[in-house]
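Task 17 of the worksheet. Students: predict the tertiary structure of the chain below and write it out as structure tokens. Keep your answer in the requested format; marks are given for formatting as well as content.
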Amino acid sequence: MKNASIKLEENLFKITWPIFVEMLLLMLLGSMDIFMLGKYSDDAVGAVGIVNQIINMLNLLFVIITSGTTIICSQYIGAKKKDEDIMGLVGTSLVINLCFGGIISLIILLFSKYILQWMNVAPEFMTYSSQYIKIVGGFMIVQAITTTFTSVIRAFGFTSICMYTTFVMNIFNIILNYILIFGKFGAPSLGVQGSATATTISKVFGTIFLGYYLFKRILPNFSSKYLRKIDKKEVKNILHMGVPSAGENISYSVAKLVTTVILTHISIAAVTTNSYINNICIFIFVFSVAIAQGSSILVGRLVGRGKTEDAYHLCFSSLKKAFVVSTILGILVAALGRNIFGIFTSNEEILALGAAVLFVNAFLEPGRTFNLVIINCLRACGDVRFPVFVGVCSMWTIGVGLAYVFSITFNLGMPGMWIALAMDEWVRGLIMYFRWRSKKWNGKAIVSKEEKIASV
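Model answer:
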């Protein structure tokens, strides 16, 4: 038993560390945009921050499919299903996300003005926001393809490939940002348009490379017939797992979007500060995200093999590691708040507000860890509905409802909002903890008991 536990820990590390580095690089991709735009204009940062809230929410529509794909693919691999079944799953997932991506790109191109008006975007931000959303949002179809490729490659355990791809994307993005934002080497100074263009070109490059690796190295026998012949059973399985699985993420993202709208009624400085904080905080919880995703891959395989007890202990082991790291980082960042904000801006109002909110965030981060790790493990087991129910109830009553009361009614402003968000994370996190302990997730996997085999 001890040797099996050690092997699981080794596999977790092998899968997780590339995800961790990849996530850091992805965060850097967004933060470099914010950093460079901060040198261009604080208003540009606020404008792009609002658009990124919209983009992140729309990205979660693709997660409906990719979540289901990752869960089922991991279970198929654990149960040693045939390549034919896996390729049918991949083809179905890719076609659905292509349709989603095309429709969303078209909607953004046609109705971006109305979307920004609904978000109550301030006049100071409107021009920048409009420029950014049309370019980045207009190419959402690229993101749809990328998320599909990434979900399958990770399910097979080739997480380092995603990491290397993201690294090169970052290099491209930084170079293109420098050239296009500030107009270097004879190029025009495009500001926000330049940042959006650089981000989009980098993503296109990443998509091409990931697609090449998936279909040449991992699934070399994949052909166009898997794109033409959609397996209705797989569509049902993907949606059965993916819709509830993504539902919690979608609810969270929409709730965050609403809190951003609330911020627009507080002050422009609050909106800009929130953009900076969102980019700072992702570096705090990136380890938790990585270990959560790595754990979900292994838990899915263990469930596919029928090793539910190993899956049970792996989740708690991962939770302990993520909790310690996120707590330490949250406290450290709070202590260095003003210095960190000084990297991005010299605006005194933003510096003071940001430093205050980071102290609240130090309490929020440990609670967030419970949700990231345990919910990912629950999804990997097929227990996808319970997190959605709890998430919707908590996010909208505590995360949004109390956020409005604290920030507007009680006039606590942005710190009051973040107190409510921290309360929401802890309430949901503790409920998820007891859900995992109850083992009610056992037996909810797509793979039937007859298909489960002993591990080798």
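Marker's comment: The longest helix spans residues 2-40. The chain has one domain: 2-451.
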